[in-house]
Please model this.
Amino acid sequence: MCQYSAREGHVTDWHFVHLGKFAQGGAGIVFVEATAVEARGRITHGDTGIWDDAHIPGLARIADFVRSQGAAPAIQLAHAGRKASMARPWYGNAPLTDADVARGDKPWEIVAPTSEPLGEGWLRPRPIGERDEEMLLDAYRAAVRRAVAAGFEVLEIHAAHGYLLHSFLSPISNHGTREERMRFPLRVVRTVRAAWPAERPLFVRVSSIDDIEGGWTIEDTVALAKELKASGVDVVDCSSGGIQGSATAAAKFMLPRVPGFQLPFAERVRKEAGMKTMAVGLILTPEQAEEALAAGRADLVAIAREALYDPNWPLHAAQALGADPQMERWPVQYGWWLTRRESLLRKLGFRR
Ligand SMILES: Cc1cc2nc3c(=O)[nH]c(=O)nc-3n(C[C@H](O)[C@H](O)[C@H](O)COP(=O)(O)O)c2cc1C
Model:
């Protein structure tokens, strides 16, 4: 989850503590937020980056700590495309204004498959040509090399939420047949796969549907997932939306926001493309997550905002599902005390 708190792409102590909490909290995989493969691919001035070797040590410190807690360190490689050069959410989540410039956040040139801006009042992107494509592939290749150097064990390519690769895929922001629109994103995926160690998992996050009339559909996602599988991708991470507004914080959505609202996409891609999937979106309770996994609707579940609410969500889930009655999964620094307190709480009638 983007924290919009980096400096010139460098992670700060905020990111170390923020991500460290989830590792301490029992997560199996901890993903570093959408991290830009080139400076102009940042959503905001506060995005994390991996376009320079100087970014490696800060990321390595996070990866090392996450691993020390028994979790797999992961990073999401991103390019914001025509959603780049925005204000941080708390300053408007919209195009940069004079107030942002006064804070030192100036707009920059943005690139996309189209010269159409995201909407009225948004920056007009410069259309990407063949030379840009080659430069972008080089940027992804170098980013993968840096992710390896930093010690990440899982890599995710961000191809969702209206950012660069999604904007290639969607008929809302690109033209041509589905095959033509998939061409560049698939080149990126193959370039990344070739640079990323063969034994380490590669995920791709997609917007399973645009949720807009005439947009990308779940049938398109199934077709893409088959290509991703043939390109050596291990998991498709099934999100949705974002080609026009925010994927998570837009004012209104056609697809009703109910618990597990994107789970049907993970299920469909899993069954129809024979691809491992990760489900995300309003997965709130351990029972809900367990049911999705046990029923074979997804192979993994991703917890975002609920983990902000409770960074110990996985440990609490293990307890609730009876998988960790003795609190052995907790970091020993906490677990040793909490196990003893549990016996007391049982005696006092606070626990069954
Ligand atoms: C603060 C915040 C930052 C986010 N940053 C990212 C990101 O970097 N990459 C991404 O793919 N999704 C990002 N998302 C979307 C989440 O990964 C997730 O798909 C969405 O919040 C729905 O899941 P949830 O109901 O568990 O929060 C972000 C969401 C939030 C709330």
